[in-house]
Amino acid sequence: MIRPILRYGDSLLHQPAAPVEAFDDGLQRLIDDMIETMYAAPGIGLAATQVGVRARVFVADTTVGRDRKGLIVMVNPAFVERDGMQLEEEGCLSIPGFNATVVRPSRAVLRGLDRHGEEQTVEAKGLLARAFQHEMDHLEGMVFVDRLRGIKRDLIVRRIQKLKRGGKW
Ligand SMILES: [Zn+2]
Predict the structure, then answer these.
(1) How do strand 57-60 and strand 72-83 relate by DSSP bridges?
(2) How many helices (H) and strands (E) does the chain have?
(3) How far away, in angstroms, is 165 Cα from ligand 1 center?
(4) CA 44 to CA 38: how far, in whole Å?
(5) How far is the CA of 94 from the centre of ligand 1 (A)?
(6) In terms of Cα–Cα distance, which of 106, 44, 33 is closest to 72?
(7) Residue 141: what pLDDT?
(8) What is the pLDDT of residues 37-50, one digit of tens each?
(9) Which one of 8, 51, 140, 145 has the fewest beta carbons within 10 angstroms of its own beta carbon?
């Protein structure tokens, strides 16, 4: 089932998520829905907080479903390594229509659990490393706009507020 994606300004999007404790049917349904929602958007990553669930779960697929092996489901992830630097345009399904250049490490290693509770470690470079860090931010209640400074950030926030006032957000 495709779930509605919360937009910037929705309080649930801006709250940190709690660790998953039960690998039950509810979690499996959530993960299936998140995968379906991500592909339908389409996007390369989606965190549970974006569909209003405060659980430390995200899905990512830089192939957007073209390669079945591209799909990564991460439960209770934590960074074990991060290094390098990349500077690229970044967007977010919760902030449609806006992009900004965000500095991120170019490589990231995440350790967490898969959807069945088995431990997994995934090393990512380039775009996937960026996606990992973007989704990890979501699990802390943070979005890419929060990583911007000064006028770059103010400009986006003001334009979103204007869209909200006009009922277009
Ligand atoms: Zn996002």
Answers:
(1) antiparallel
(2) 3, 7
(3) 22
(4) 7
(5) 6
(6) 44
(7) 98
(8) 999 999 999 999 99
(9) 140
